[in-house]
Automatic annotation (TrEMBL):
<keyword id="KW-0472">Membrane</keyword>
<keyword id="KW-0325">Glycoprotein</keyword>
<keyword id="KW-1133">Transmembrane helix</keyword>
<keyword id="KW-0732">Signal</keyword>
<dbReference type="InterPro" id="IPR001611">
    <property type="entry name" value="Leu-rich_rpt"/>
</dbReference>
<keyword id="KW-0677">Repeat</keyword>
<feature type="domain" description="Leucine-rich repeat-containing N-terminal plant-type">
    <location>
        <begin position="35"/>
        <end position="71"/>
    </location>
</feature>
<dbReference type="Pfam" id="PF13855">
    <property type="entry name" value="LRR_8"/>
</dbReference>
<dbReference type="InterPro" id="IPR046956">
    <property type="entry name" value="RLP23-like"/>
</dbReference>
<feature type="signal peptide">
    <location>
        <begin position="1"/>
        <end position="23"/>
    </location>
</feature>
<dbReference type="Pfam" id="PF00560">
    <property type="entry name" value="LRR_1"/>
</dbReference>
<dbReference type="InterPro" id="IPR013210">
    <property type="entry name" value="LRR_N_plant-typ"/>
</dbReference>
<dbReference type="InterPro" id="IPR032675">
    <property type="entry name" value="LRR_dom_sf"/>
</dbReference>
<keyword id="KW-0675">Receptor</keyword>
<keyword id="KW-0812">Transmembrane</keyword>
<dbReference type="GO" id="GO:0010087">
    <property type="term" value="P:phloem or xylem histogenesis"/>
</dbReference>
<dbReference type="GO" id="GO:0016020">
    <property type="term" value="C:membrane"/>
</dbReference>
Length: 415
């Protein structure tokens, strides 16, 4: 699921307050400590740089080099941003051949005593392990190694980074090893963690206990992790600050656990592609701050989309595709239409289900709707004229239903 704007803004504010991104602490061209300049040159020498990304690393002032930022008072290096801008998290090496950094990470980085920010994401370090010494960069608050395809496994020494606030390890390994989580216990300040694509199949049910001990989480991303189970009960939940939870693509093959509904701080919840079964619980209605909900690709066979879910008045995105749900949508939409504030829903995606009945007039009350995807269902009747009220609509998919063939009426012409 795409990042929620409100949650992302809150996280950025937290990072700014911590000093990681604070513009007053960063200045280019303010001089350079000689020992750190030499350390950066040793680091450069150890890397493969086919596109010359580090070609600006010449001269005496390392604070003016590309990707390097210094403290404006001490001239010490505090930020090293060497991510590959030519590849996003879904890109392949072929897409950006010749642009990625590679090779061995030099221990000369240990000379950067005040380094707070290190980003090596979207590069290609295949054949090289994450060095143990990274755990000795004690001032690090931001570490991003996502999409860099290191070999081996996560070094236990990462658990020494007690000041770390942001850790992104999404798809950073070559997937050859299973991962344990013991090292996480030392990261007591962590607010953002992404371990997407890691193999946690041996973690057992204790994986939730590990994360539950870290009370500061704002965002937790664990998609495609082969998590072995989703505990149905968990009495001592400590996720009071959690706003974003992504557990998608783990194939839990269970019912939806009710402890999820106690995380009332959630703004974004992605449980897509988990083979969750049974009815869609009314308990989701207790997450009244929720703005994004993705339950696609599960097995809510014959489940009901109840009026209680319509009480999620802050919802902006709801995705229920590929579930074979066979209820009507009128109760849910009627519930939304009763929201006292303006209905905020922008995206409603219900494709590949067995929704039936006619589309209710209340559909036209979703004035902020931009994407309405209803194809491959069993809707009956005709398109309600009230859909003409959806003046912000950009996408409308109604194909492969059992609706009457008709011309688009005058009330829809301006959509």
């Amino acid at each position: 699921m795409g990042g929620n704007k409100s949650a992302t803004s809150a996280l950025l504010l937290l990072l700014l307050l911590s000093g990681i991104l604070h513009p007053e602490t960063i200045q280019l061209g303010s001089g350079c400590q000689e020992a750190e300049r030499k350390a950066l040159l040793q680091f450069k020498q150890s890397l493969r740089d086919p596109s010359g990304q580090l070609s600006s690393w010449v001269g005496e002032d390392c604070c003016s080099w590309s990707g390097v930022s210094c403290n404006n008072r001490t001239a010490s290096v505090i930020k090293l941003n060497l991510n590959n801008p030519f590849r996003d998290s879904f890109g392949s090496f072929e897409d950006d051949a010749g642009h990625e950094l590679g090779g061995e990470i030099s221990p000369s980085l240990l000379q950067l005593k005040d380094l707070e920010y290190l980003d090596l994401s979207m590069n290609n370090f295949t054949g090289f392990q994450v060095p143990e010494f990274i755990g000795s960069l004690k001032e690090l608050r931001y570490l991003n190694l996502s999409g860099s395809f290191f070999s081996g496994t996560i070094p236990q020494t990462l658990g020494n980074l007690s000041n770390l606030l942001y850790l992104d390890l999404n798809n950073f390994l070559d997937q050859s090893n299973q991962i344990d989580l013991e090292w996480l216990s030392g990261l007591s300040s962590l607010v953002y963690f992404n371990l997407g694509g890691a193999d946690l199949s041996k973690a057992g049910a204790y994986w939730l206990e590990v994360f539950n001990k870290l009370h500061s989480f704002v965002e937790l991303h664990l998609p495609n992790c082969n998590l072995p189970s989703l505990p149905l009960s968990f009495p001592s939940l400590n996720f009071a600050s959690l706003q974003v939870l992504d557990l998608s693509n783990n194939d839990f093959n269970s019912t939806t656990p009710h402890w999820l509904f106690n995380i009332t701080s959630l703004l974004c919840l992605d449980l897509g592609s988990n083979d969750l079964q049974g009815d869609i619980p009314d308990g989701f209605a207790s997450l009244n701050s929720l703005q994004e909900l993705d339950l696609s690709g599960n097995s809510f066979l014959g489940g009901q989309l109840s009026r209680n879910l319509g009480k999620l008045c802050n919802l902006r995105t709801m995705i229920l595709s590929r579930n074979n749900i066979s209820s009507e949508v009128s109760d849910f939409l009627d519930g939304l239409s009763e929201c006292t504030n303006s209905i905020l829903l922008e995206k409603l995606e219900l494709r590949f289900n067995q929704f039936t009945g006619i589309l209710p007039i209340s559909l036209g009350s979703l004035k902020n709707l931009r994407h309405l995807v209803l194809w491959q269902n069993s809707f009956l009747g005709s398109i309600p004229p009230s859909i003409g009220n959806l003046t912000l609509l950009k996408e409308l998919y109604l194909a492969s239903n059992q609706m009457n063939g008709q011309k688009i009426s005058d009330s829809y012409q301006h959509l």
